[in-house]
Specification:
The chain is of the alpha/beta class and 346 residues long. Helix 3 runs parallel beside helix 5, helix 8 packs parallel to helix 11 and helix 10 packs parallel to helix 11. The protein is built from 13 helices and 14 strands. Strand 3, helix 5 and strand 4 form a beta-alpha-beta unit. The chain has an eight-stranded mixed sheet, sandwiched between helices. A two-stranded antiparallel sheet has the order 7-8. Helices cover 39% and strands 20% of the residues. The chain has one domain: Spore Coat Polysaccharide Biosynthesis Protein SpsA, Chain A, CATH 3.90.550.10.
């Protein structure tokens, strides 16, 4: 049995193990922890109010979660209004750390949430989950509250390709790109059932030390970077049952895969001691039929990265004021992405 197999057998939980919410609240309070729930959004008006209404009782009725925030990338529909009306705290990502510029993407929203929210544990959930349920939170935070040595819990679940039929088959980018890539280059990460799951819970003390790709590459980057620093021992995954959401077309998934591939290849090069590529953005060429011919449509994919939040002076100052400390947090740079960011900030 290799390490991935051992980890899979000992660090895979099920949400039913953490169904006693009152017990989770007691553990949270005994440990003096705050929990922040973040929902990153971009044009999610069709689902955001339903998603939030199923989560808000965790804050308002049982006090498991201390804050529920929507971080928006600049929606042009009524996502922001509906989120506010539902009762969440709503922030526009561009208004957080404005001096560092703005980017659009899920990773950007999560990075900005780390600065804006106060939780010792952050829980991230996507806004398009049609069957949202409190188990998506309890199943993720439970392992962290019961096992102090665990620092990052990833969701796993069944993903029907067609919600009406119940047939499985979701997760095409995982099966066609990430699982083969991890098998070749990061075999210890092959125990993750859904490595690109958008749902996770993690301790702030870990998240603030790693860079965040601004877009689709953030989930894979978290696994690779934290594994490089800490090994498998800090990870767990929790079975949340079934996740229903909208399925994306192949063309959109192709662009997503290109962004993720940029991120994981960048880390592979750094692990091998090679300098990061300074070439042009990845230009992905896709084709659409127009009459009797095919037309090429090109997209420039540039998965930029935000530096570790702990290297941002405004964040360090905010944390020292919040914690009542005057000492300067120590910066540990694990690889060139982080070292360069720390040097630039100072």
């Amino acid at each position: 049995m290799d390490r991935a197999d051992r980890w899979l057998s000992t660090r895979t939980f099920h949400h039913r193990q953490f169904a006693d919410i009152a017990a989770l609240v007691r553990r949270k309070q005994a440990q003096g922890l705050r929990l922040s729930l973040v929902v990153p959004t971009l044009n999610e008006e069709q689902t955001i109010d339903t998603v939030l209404k199923r989560l808000l009782p965790l804050r308002d009725a049982v006090s498991l979660v201390d804050e529920i925030a929507v971080i928006d990338s600049g929606s042009t529909d009524r996502t922001v209004e509906r989120a506010g009306e539902a009762g969440a705290e709503v922030y526009r990502a561009a208004d957080i750390l404005p001096g560092m510029g703005a980017a659009r993407g899920k990773g950007e929203n999560l990075w900005k949430a780390l600065h804006r929210l106060s939780g010792d544990i952050l829980v991230a959930l996507d806004a398009d989950i049609a069957n949202m349920h409190p188990r998506f939170v309890t199943g993720l935070v439970g392992p962290l509250l019961e096992h102090p040595e665990i620092g990052y819990v990833k969701a796993c679940y069944d993903r029907p390709a067609c919600p009406d039929s119940g047939a499985l088959g979701g997760g095409r980018v995982t099966e066609l790109l990430i699982r083969p890539f991890f098998s070749l280059h990061f075999p210890e990460l092959t125990g993750f059932i859904q490595p690109l799951a958008g749902e996770f819970a993690a301790r702030r003390s870990l998240l603030e030390t790693i860079p965040f790709p601004v877009g689709y590459g953030v989930e894979a980057a978290h696994l690779v970077d934290l594994h490089a620093r800490h090994g498998l021992s800090i990870f767990a995954q929790s079975d949340l049952g079934q996740r229903l959401h909208r399925n994306r077309g192949n063309a959109e998934l192709g662009r997503m895969a290109c962004a993720i591939l940029q991120v994981v290849e960048r880390r592979l090069h750094l692990r091998r001691g090679r300098p990061e590529s300074t070439g042009p953005d990845c230009l992905i060429r896709q084709f659409v039929r127009r009459g009797d011919t095919f037309a090429a449509v090109s997209f420039a994919i540039d998965e930029q990265e935000r530096p570790p939040m702990l290297t941002v002076a405004a964040y360090r100052h905010q944390r020292m004021m919040r914690d009542g400390r005057q000492d300067r947090p120590r910066i540990l740079a694990a690889h060139p992405i982080e070292a360069a960011a720390a040097t630039a900030e100072e």
